[in-house]
Every structure is written in structure tokens, then in C-alpha cells.
UniProtKB/TrEMBL annotation:
Enzyme superclass (EC): hydrolase
SUPFAM superfamilies in the record: P-loop containing nucleoside triphosphate hydrolases (SSF52540)
Family matches, as InterPro entries: AAA+_ATPase (IPR003593), ABC_AA/LPS_Transport (IPR051120), ABC_transporter-like_ATP-bd (IPR003439), BCA_ABC_TP_C (IPR032823), P-loop_NTPase (IPR027417)
GO terms for MF: ATP binding; ATP hydrolysis activity
The protein's name in its UniProt record: Sulfate/thiosulfate import ATP-binding protein CysA
Organism: Anoxybacillus thermarum
PANTHER family: ABC TRANSPORTER ATP-BINDING PROTEIN, CONSERVED COMPONENT OF ABC TRANSPORTER FOR NATURAL AMINO ACIDS-RELATED
Keyword vocabulary terms for this entry: ATP-binding, Hydrolase, Nucleotide-binding, Transport
Gene Ontology CC annotations of this record: plasma membrane
One Pfam family from the record: BCA_ABC_TP_C
Record carries keyword Hydrolase: yes
EC number: 3.6.3.25
PROSITE patterns in the record: ABC_TRANSPORTER_2
Domain ABC transporter stretches: 4-252
Length: 256
């Protein structure tokens, strides 16, 4: 069953057509990768799915609900979370506080209600704190839980970025180059966490990643973009042997 359907989505920035009538479907419970050369439109597509961009044309459906013009925070409440390529954390706040911010879409007790019904607000705070502690344990961040994020290594910051999105308890997790700039050890760790999120949390994942070894190992299906157009879709094996993909992106050494 498809959890996300992208139908003929286009987006234009001035005279540049960043996405040109792109359509694909992501099945519930899979790892789905978007690949392509730099400037192919991958991040623009994630921005359309998460609500940061509004498509010029086309529609996006999440769990069969049309979300094309739904605002980002409402999409988050529906179950879509995003980790960014460029780290978007609050550097002076601790790991714990950054992850607590990821819980905002789940908070039901407002400021006024909190003032009137302190017990209810306090109970909700404890529940959210418990969920965040689960994420800290899951991503092995216990040793830095109270450390300001800005003082952490790049690899740990990327892990916290994923953790903040995971704290939203998403059904669909969008990961934009989660391994960019990492060394081999950090990449191996992140790949393991992605597999664990997928298998243990039963989370559907859309992944943008330039490391083709990682993409081919992790993905159930892959969509390939080139100059804003969808040029291929299929299993890793099908994509690896697609002549258009080899010519546009992979090169002969990745074929076969």
C-alpha cells in the first residue's frame, strides 16, 4: 500500500524548472531513495513533500489525503518528519533540549491550559520527556544528553538532527544526505541507525544519499532524477542496469 503518492509535481523558480512533472509512489514500510546528480531536484522534492515548497503544478497525497497545500507543521502532525542536509539545530541548547523541541507537534496542552491545569501540563511534559529519553537511548546519545549541541563532533550533530525528527514519532521520515561529510566509521554507524529505525520503529524512509554503496544496500526502491525529470524507477538492481541512469549519473563502474 502506498503511504505517499507524488503525482505530476512540477516547481519553477523564475525561469528554472527544478522539477518537471515528477510522479512516483512510496510503499508503506520501505526505504525509498532519491538519487541523481547535483542540481537534479532531489532536495526540492523533499521540500515539496515536507511543505517547505508549494508545487507549481501537481499533487501530493499522504495516506490517501491530499496534502499539496497543507502547511509544514500540519504535515508534521500527520506523521511526516524531516532531517536536513545542513544541520538545523540550536547549538547553545543541549541534546536533550533539541530533541524536546522535536516533540512540539505532539503537544496538546497549550500555554493557557498549562497555567490553568498545571497537573495536566506537567503530566504531558513527563510523557514527552519519556519519549525523548527513548530516542536518546535508541541513538546512543546518553553520554552527550546534557552537552550543548554546538560543541559536539559533526557526526554526533548529524545524529541529533535525525533524532529530533525521530522524536516526532513519524510514519514517514525524510533524510536529506544524512551521511554527507562523514568519515567511514560515522557512515557505518548512521547506516545501522537507519536500518534500526526502519526495522524496529517500522518507519517508512525517503533517503537522499550520494554514497551509492549505501543506497544500493539499504533501498527497496529507487527513483532517479536528472535535470528535474524522473528518468528511472525500480529496484536497486533495475536502476543499476538502466542505460539512462548509467549515462546520466552512475557511470560504467557502478553498472552490473
Amino acid at each position: 500500500m502506498g503511504i505517499l503518492k507524488v503525482q505530476n509535481v512540477s516547481i519553477r523558480f523564475g525561469g528554472v524548472l527544478a522539477l518537471d512533472s515528477v510522479s512516483f509512489e512510496v510503499k508503506e514500510g520501505e526505504i525509498f531513495s532519491l538519487i541523481g546528480p547535483n542540481g537534479a531536484g532531489k532536495t526540492s522534492m523533499l521540500n515539496c513533500i515536507s511543505g517547505l515548497y508549494k508545487p507549481t503544478a501537481g499533487d501530493i497525497f499522504f495516506k490517501d489525503e491530499r496534502i499539496t497545500h497543507v502547511k509544514p507543521h500540519k504535515r508534521a502532525a500527520l506523521g511526516i518528519a524531516r532531517a536536513f542536509q545542513n544541520i538545523e539545530l540550536f547549538p547553545h541548547l543541549s541534546v536533550l533540549d533539541n530533541l524536546m523541541l522535536g516533540r512540539h507537534v505532539r503537544m496538546k496542552t497549550g500555554v493557557l491550559a498549562g497555567g490553568l491545569y498545571w497537573g495536566k501540563a506537567q503530566k504531558e511534559e513527563v510523557e514527552h520527556r519519556y519519549k525523548v529519553e527513548e530516542v536518546i537511548d535508541f541513538l546512543e546519545l546518553e553520554h552527550v544528553r546534557n552537552v550543548p549541541v554546538g560543541t559536539l563532533s559533526y557526526g554526533l550533530q548529524k545524529r541529533v538532527e535525525v533524532g529530533r525528527a525521530l522524536a516526532m514519532e513519524p510514519d514517514l521520515l525524510l533524510l536529506d544526505e544524512p551521511m554527507a561529510g562523514m568519515n567511514n566509521e560515522e557512515k557505518e554507524d548512521m547506516a545501522r541507525y537507519i536500518i534500526d529505525i526502519h526495522e524496529e520503529k517500522k518507519t517508512t524512509i525517503i533517503l537522499i544519499e550520494h554514497d551509492m554503496g549505501v543506497v544500493m544496500d539499504l533501498s527497496n526502491h529507487i527513483a532517479v532524477l536528472d535535470f528535474g525529470k524522473l528518468i528511472a524507477y525500480g529496484t536497486p538492481k533495475e536502476v543499476q542496469t538502466n542505460p539512462r541512469v548509467i549515462e546520466a549519473y552512475l557511470g560504467e563502474e557502478h553498472a552490473g
